[in-house]
Fold:
Amino acid sequence: MSQTADFVTHLECAMTGKRATAGVVHNLSEDGWPLLVRYDLERMRASLDRDEVWARGGGFWKWRELLPVRSDENVVALGEVDTPLVALSNSYPGAGAVVKDEGRLPTGSFKARGLALAVGMAKELGLKHLAMPSNGNAGAALSAYAARAGIASTVVCPADTPEINLSETALQGGDVFRADGLIHQCGAWTKARADEGRWFDVSTLKEPYRIEGKKTMGLELAAQLGWSLPDVIFYPTGGGTGLIGMWKAFAEMEALGWLEAAQKPRMVAVQAEGCAPIVRAFEAGERHAPAWENATTIAMGIRVPKAIGDFLILDAVRESGGWAQAVSDAAILEARAKVAAADGLLLCPEGAACLAAYDIARADGRVRADERAVIFNCATGLKYDMPRVEKQLSLSADG
Ligand SMILES: *Cc1c(COP(=O)(O)O)cnc(C)c1O
Structure:
């Protein structure tokens, strides 16, 4: 059985720093907080060459030494790619803004990164049935990678989750349900049954490995920018796994001596005005974000009223010198239309939200035109409702 060198030393409670043993099944830490994977970065630094790693194929799986999956047979792969940085040359001529288009990944969203790792580790640890609540893309990624790994999956979605997400999840073998509640309520239901032993709960940050997958966005981005980091990152923040994961990646790369400069990007947590618990907590100077009541936005991926990793999101945003920004649904639709028409790039609503937040920051001077800004487009725009075309043409009427 072929293995990659094992650099994992232990897991660590993100709140208390208390250690937990690697290589056994975990959800939250014993104190009820997310667990983070820790590596022997000193030893890795001495034995691993960044350019050799970057030259490998396999998309995010190329970062094997920085990931927890050990055995090659537990690498669950669906044709992963490095996602491109797409310039917005027509809509923002001369500006340093680029879109990292995560819609090119298997299952059409960056949820592939996290779920591939969660499923790979579930396989390595012998788990047979995984379950989670989902606003759509996570469930689709779970069902796809679980099917590939021969593991059963159950997904519970809010009733207004886009039809396409429910359908793709079902076709990929997921046992998927519509439920009469928002994502945190769906999560309470799946957790109660996980506690009874019915399945293993792979909710955002409630197992240690999805964040390791999302971390690869930060590794990949740095490599794409010649082992440097951008000035500012706009990230559509729901559970916040990607923002937290990238911040972890930057720290690990720094420890590995892989970065050309110590300068880290300002991290901007972007939310919708109709569901902005992180923005509210950021502005109030709080470390935790109470649940947002009556959450509503067209950007389903960031309709997360309560995030267990709220303090990790807020810590990273503050430490980076960044901020949290809410944008309106109208601004989201406007940003999507602008870039699609001018640059031929169809963003998902969450990606468009980041662009709307970039516009605000440019207008008020927080981001200069020449600064390198990365806007995360986390899913293919093709999965979302678009305006209906009403123009009719009668081909026989006028000869
Ligand atoms: C899940 C999701 C998000 C939020 O990502 P987190 O890392 O969980 O905050 C944003 N956009 C889309 C399209 C998503 O599917």
